[in-house]
UniProtKB/TrEMBL annotation:
The chain crosses the membrane at residues 39-60, 72-92, 98-117, 129-147, 153-174, 186-204, 216-237, 244-264. Keywords: Membrane, Transmembrane, Transmembrane helix. It comes from the Bacteria. SUPFAM superfamilies: Multidrug resistance efflux transporter EmrE. This is EamA domain-containing protein. Residues 156-287 form the EamA domain. InterPro entries: EamA_dom, EmrE-like.
Length: 288
């Protein structure tokens, strides 16, 4: 069990767990608000505004100075990419079940930072590389829905979203010198601006939205778990290799599915259950 002593991997896995809970909360919040693109974007915007407010309080209490230069730019760029990616992802979801497209998005989110890390940090070694490939298979098994016909534009949206999420991981890594909290605060600034502009551009075209007390509770839950997961990912990326942090954090669909099984009584499919077992094998290989 010694592989669990790897701090980089521990933080990344914890981030995956929290991100999965945050995604579940965000999905439930969007559903309670109307289940369309506009409602999803408003849930994202409200949760990011909430977390940004908390992050500012933390920064004020710590007395951290505003960062400048490359870390500041990388942090804001991460937020813009994250906001655009979430927008594309939710638009695709609003068109119906994404099926294999969801898995494509998850795979790109893991593969792009892994490739960047290999180019900048060198080879991760044969064992870890094998673990990355097995993790990719696990992501596909867990996230891909049943075979179905999908509009090619939906698939392209998922590809663009996955690429954006991959860039988000990389940008957060390079924003790391700004400190443990500022990278997330800067990213929230970028995502809040981006989502606000998109909502203004929709001008009511994204569907009716109903914000209830239940929606607000889901928004608060999303803000708590998503922000906590992001902070842990920043810490993991600062502590060790980006590829290890990104690939392990990209296993977050597993916790979403387990939470849905517990709360909504949605039983995982055999393929998803097998994917979770495969994910355990990948974690062992990556963290040994």
């Amino acid at each position: 069990m010694g592989f669990f002593l790897n701090g980089n991997a521990l933080l990344a896995l914890a981030a995956a767990g929290l991100w999965g809970v945050g995604d579940f909360s965000g999905g439930m919040g969007a559903k309670s608000a109307g289940g369309n693109t506009a409602s999803a974007l408003r849930v994202v915007l409200l949760s990011h505004l909430t977390s940004f407010s908390v992050l500012l309080l933390i920064l004020f209490a710590r007395g951290d100075t505003f960062p400048h230069g490359a870390p500041m730019l990388w942090g804001i760029a991460a937020g813009v990419a994250g906001g655009l990616s979430l927008t594309g992802f939710y638009i695709a979801l609003a068109r119906g079940a994404m099926g294999a497209s969801a898995a494509i998005s998850g795979l790109l989110a893991a593969a792009i930072p892994a490739l960047v890390s290999m180019l900048t940090d060198g080879s991760p070694g044969l064992r870890r590389a094998l673990g990355f490939l097995i993790a990719g298979a696990a992501i596909w098994l867990i996230a891909a829905g049943p075979a179905e016909h999908e509009d090619p534009s939906t698939t392209w949206l998922a590809i663009a979203s996955g690429a954006g999420f991959g860039f988000y991981f990389v940008a957060l890594k390079y924003a790391g010198p700004a400190g443990p909290v500022w990278p997330m605060a800067l990213a929230r600034m970028g995502s809040i601006s981006t989502c606000s502009i998109i909502l203004l551009a929709l001008r009511g075209g994204g569907g009716a939205v109903t914000i209830t007390r239940r929606t607000i509770l889901w928004v608060l839950s999303t803000a708590l778990f998503d922000t906590s997961g992001n902070l842990l990912f920043v810490a993991a990326a600062r502590l060790g290799r980006l590829d290890v942090a990104a690939v392990l954090a990209s296993l977050y669909p597993a916790s979403t599915i387990l939470l849905a099984a517990w709360v909504l009584r949605e039983r995982p499919t055999r393929r998803q259950a097998f994917g979770m077992a495969v994910a355990i094998a990948a974690v062992v290989l990556i963290t040994l």
